[in-house]
Design brief:
Blueprint: H1 2-15, H2 24-29, E1 43-49, H3 54-62, E2 68-71, H4 73-78, H5 80-88, E3 92-95, H6 108-124, E4 132-133, H7 142-150, E5 154-155, E6 160-161, H8 171-179, E7 187-191, H9 201-218
Length: about 230
């Protein structure tokens, strides 16, 4: 009975950070950022790329607006030229791991290898060394959170999401979800790829960006990078 209790306690501790994307109190207790430090401006972030069609479409829609792209190593290997294109456009490159897999099922040693591999391929593609990390699905394990911090990576989730990965999400819905009650310090989550979501979902994302950019501008909020504010 005692052994079973210890196993359950260990599992609970391992999974403790998992609800942070949907429970701000959990994120706050574990010091996982959901907003920009100092509540300065708004950060526009994109997960799951690069993508041969989605990333160029998003870059075009952004124009001169600064964003942060959380790249997946296995996709960087397929389209390394897009990494340099993101950087050349003035955007920040951050880390989303090498494999897009739930961290709760991965050991610290496996995750360490995953992070090393992802950072190496991003560097080889000309994306520099990422300093900000968002795990797949936004779900940390306690071991993953500790490892990221030991590596000097800034763990970042988001405060608002467009749910643009959903089948049937429209540009208007995505923009409304992101910008309703928008405030300084918000971190906005979108996706420039459909590798792990509904096929073609990036089209609605790119189409939503003009309305998102206009709404942020109308509130007098600047677009901020992550690195400059951490």
């Amino acid at each position: 009975m005692r052994t079973r209790r210890l196993i359950l306690l260990g599992a609970a501790a391992w999974c403790a950070p998992a609800p942070a994307p949907v429970l701000p109190a959990v994120a706050a207790a574990l010091r996982i950022a959901r907003r920009l430090p100092g509540n300065r401006g708004v950060a526009l972030t994109f997960d799951d790329g690069p993508h041969p069609e989605g990333t160029p479409a998003v870059l075009e829609a952004l124009g001169g607006v600064k964003a942060t792209f959380f790249l997946v190593g296995e996709q960087v290997v397929r389209w390394p030229d897009l990494v340099a294109r993101i950087g050349a456009a003035g955007h920040e490159i951050a880390l989303h791991g090498y494999r897009h897999r739930l961290l709760l099922r991965r050991t610290p040693s496996a995750l360490a290898r995953d992070l090393d591999r992802a950072i190496a391929v991003i560097q080889e593609a000309g994306g520099g060394t990422p300093t900000c990390y968002r795990p797949p699905y936004g779900v940390f394990s306690s071991g993953a959170l500790a490892l990221a911090r030991r590596r000097g990576l800034f763990p970042l989730l988001w405060s608002r999401w467009g749910r643009d990965w959903e089948r049937g999400a429209t540009p208007a819905e995505i923009a409304r979800r992101l910008t309703r009650d928008l405030s300084a310090g918000d971190v906005l989550l979108l996706h420039d790829a459909d590798h792990y979501s509904s096929p073609g979902s990036w089209r609605a994302t790119a189409a939503a960006l003009p309305a998102v950019i206009e709404a942020v501008a109308n509130r007098g909020l600047p677009f901020e990078g992550i690195v400059q504010t951490t």
